[in-house]
Amino acid sequence: MILGVGVDLVAVARMERLDAKWGGRLAKRVLAASEIAALPRSAAARARRLALAFAAKEAFAKAMGTGFAHPVTLGQVAVERDEAGAPRFAFGPELAKLLRRRKVARTHLSLSDDGGQAVAVAVLEDAG
């Protein structure tokens, strides 16, 4: 059974402006350590990655129905890629504990970007 669905849209240009203004501080605020390590060097690719990651985290927070409230925080949610390159969520220990308490057995993530926009859809499922 579906427990939650969230969608978010982020302008890539907005992330590019914020990244130029704040430098590495934006990445440290928005991304988990594993995501920071994988950031591209070019400004355009970096902004795209930041926009997709932020959209994914917003979509997840909406699917949870909590917004960003402890332990649903930017640092507790990471976007990774599986062996085939498909996006997936990874969670910090505090958030993983909450997901178990809420009986969230599976999470799904879809990402896309075009026309200067990044969009993410997050779906939470129970074991049923």
UniProtKB/TrEMBL annotation:
Belongs to the P-Pant transferase superfamily. AcpS family. It catalyses: apo-[ACP] + CoA = holo-[ACP] + adenosine 3',5'-bisphosphate + H(+). GO terms for cellular component: cytoplasm. Mg(2+) binds at residues 8, 58. The lineage of its organism: Bacteria, Pseudomonadati, Pseudomonadota, Gammaproteobacteria, Candidatus Tethybacterales. The keyword Transcription regulation does not apply. Its main location: cytoplasm. Its cofactor is Mg(2+). It is an enzyme of class 2 (transferase). Its EC number is 2.7.8.7. InterPro entries: 4-PPantetheinyl_Trfase_dom, 4-PPantetheinyl_Trfase_dom_sf, ACPS, Ppantetheine-prot_Trfase_dom. It is found in: Cytoplasm. Transfers the 4'-phosphopantetheine moiety from coenzyme A to a Ser of acyl-carrier-protein. It holds the Pfam family ACPS. It comes from the Bacteria. This is Holo-[acyl-carrier-protein] synthase. It comes from Candidatus Amphirhobacter heronislandensis.
